[in-house]
Structure formats: C-alpha cells, structure tokens
Amino acid sequence: MRVFIALDLPVEIIDKIKKIQDALPEFVGKKTEIENLHLTLKFFGEVSEDKIKQIKECLRKIKFSPRDDPSKDDTAVPSGEPSPRDDSGEPQKFQVSIDSIGVFSEKIIRIIWLHLTNCDALQKEIDNSLKEIFKPEERFMSHLTIARVKNAGSEQSSGLERPSVAIRKNKKEFLEKLKRIKIPKISFIVENFKLKSSILQSRGPVYGDIEIYPLE
C-alpha cells in the first residue's frame, strides 16, 4: 500500500485556495482537485502491512509541542483559541499560515505551490520518531501543491515565432502573472495529522485516512 503522513485542510481554507487556483494564469496541465489538497509531511511510497503497523506505533508516541519551534509567532493565535504553549509536553494544536505562491524551478515549471509556515517542527518530530525505520527527509519544504504544469501558457502560438522563442515568452508571461496574484491572509489551527493511503486510479489518486493523531 502507498502511504504518507499529511495535514488536511479545513473546508473554509479549501474554499479560499480554490479562489487562488481560479486566479492562476493560463497553463497546460491540471489543478489539484479540491478533495486532494493537503500538506505532505512525509511520503513513504509502497510499504508492507507490517511496516504500516510499525509506523502507527511510532506516531502514537509523539509528544509534540510547537513551543519548541523558533519560528512560532505567538501573536498570531486567534482570539478564543487555546495557547499552543503548554508545559505538559503533550501534543498541542498550533497555527499555520499560507504566505506565498511559487514554483520550484522557473526554468522547468512543473509544480505550482502555496507555502505553509510553522510546519517544520512537527515534521522534524515525525522524522525523529521514525528514524529507526526510515531515513529523515534531507530537504523538507512545507508546501501545498495546487497545480501540476505541462506547459506554461497557452498551447497555441502566433505561428510567427520559433517554438523555442514562443516557449520562453509564454514562460516569462506566466511567471509575471503568477507573481501578481495577491495571496489573502489565510491562517488556521492544526488539530491533528494523519497517516493516509494513496490508491492510484486512471482519474488520479484517491486518498484515505488510515489513522488520525490528534493535537490537543
């Protein structure tokens, strides 16, 4: 079974992300289906049932508190929400924000993402809990994939330009339009993380929850 660890998003946040997707400049590719929007904290790929059992046991032992995260902005906690700082050592809810949009490579545009703040501490804790059976992530970038790109810009060209020139022009215009998208203030409280399954189908992956780990 293909499995991974992820943060799912509240419905109201997904609605806001859908508006950002609708504002994307024209491209050839596919926007992430709203039901599949999530932040991957660790991807395992195909693992056996025995390994899944080990993963569950490790994740159940996590005692995470974001008070240890130096990037935490205490002033951003919404009114009425419990403080994420707690000396109990028990797992604590914490707040994340979406603060920017971008691509991994401007030369070869394949993924359009939104960056999520304040997730590194939890990801490191997950890596640490699993270090006896899986290697830690060498590079973790807290991002939400909102689209996968085959070609930036339209498939059609004027017919007067060489293909290589048209591609560079389309890419430049695409990046300029992408950078002009204004990202509204989007924040939410993370209440849990999940061990999830991924079943590949012709219409795309279908995700399911294997086990949920609450942050009290």
Would you kindly provide a written description of the structure presented here, covering whatever features stand out?
By secondary structure, the protein is α+β, with helices and mostly antiparallel strands. It has a single domain, classed as Alpha-Beta Complex (Cyclic Phosphodiesterase, Chain: A). The protein is 24% helix and 34% strand. It has four helices and nine strands; from the N terminus they run βαββαββαβαβββ. It has a five-stranded antiparallel β-sheet. Strands 3-1-8-9 form a four-stranded antiparallel β-sheet, covered by helices on one side. The longest helix is centred in the C-terminal third of the chain and has 17 residues. It is globular and about 50 Å long. The two termini are 29 Å apart. The relative contact order is 0.24.
Q: Could you tell me the strand content as a percent range?
A: 25-35%
- Give the C-alpha Rg: 19 Å
Distance between the termini: 29 Å
Basic shape: globular
User: How many domains comprise the coordinates?
Assistant: 1
Strand sequence of the main sheet, in spatial order? 2-6-5-4-7
CATH topology: Cyclic Phosphodiesterase, Chain: A
CATH superfamily: Cyclic phosphodiesterase
Poorly predicted spans: 67-90, 156-163
**SS class:** alpha+beta
CATH class category:
Alpha Beta
Order of helices and strands: EHEEHEEHEHEEE
**Named CATH architecture:** Alpha-Beta Complex
